[in-house]
Design brief:
Nucleoside Triphosphate Pyrophosphohydrolase, single chain, four-stranded antiparallel β-sheet, four-stranded mixed β-sheet, 8 strands, alpha+beta
């Protein structure tokens, strides 16, 4: 079968959502409900469906996981190391997404929690996989 001869990585998207509250920058994160990284913070995201544009997928995942409507996704980064996820080879596109700064996140789908968090208070041990690398880039 052709699918077995040509193995391909899965494609995922992650929404990077920021807001400034005075001098504090907050990032919208979900706490993962399931393994891998159960209980750790992550950017809202998930897999791109077949026949779905990644730009549409990131907006869909933001609503499904955090209950927040986003707009104007803008490419930010790609993470694709074959070992970045223990389940399988997953390439993720990270998009900066605009939202209403008054939006109140509500956990859904694969998220146990969804909340705005001060980006300076995050430490690597609290973050899923390679998402902390994105946090560090955002801090610069």
């Amino acid at each position: 079968m052709e699918g077995e001869r040509y193995r391909s990585p899965s494609l995922a998207v992650d929404a990077v959502v920021l807001r400034d509250i005075g001098v504090v920058t907050e990032v919208l994160l979900i706490r993962r409900k399931y393994p891998p990284w159960q209980g750790k913070f992550a950017f809202p995201g998930g897999f791109v469906d077949y026949d779905e544009d990644p730009v549409d997928a990131v907006l869909r995942e933001l609503v499904e996981e955090a209950g927040v409507v986003g707009s104007n996704p803008e490419f930010y980064a790609v993470k694709g190391s074959p070992k970045r996820d223990p389940r399988k080879h997953i390439v993720s596109i990270f998009y900066l997404v605009e939202v209403d700064e008054e939006a109140v996140p509500v956990a859904g789908d694969d998220a146990a929690e969804a909340e705005w968090i001060n980006i300076e208070k995050l430490v690597a041990d609290d973050i899923s996989g390679d998402h902390f690398e994105i946090i560090e880039q955002l801090r610069k």
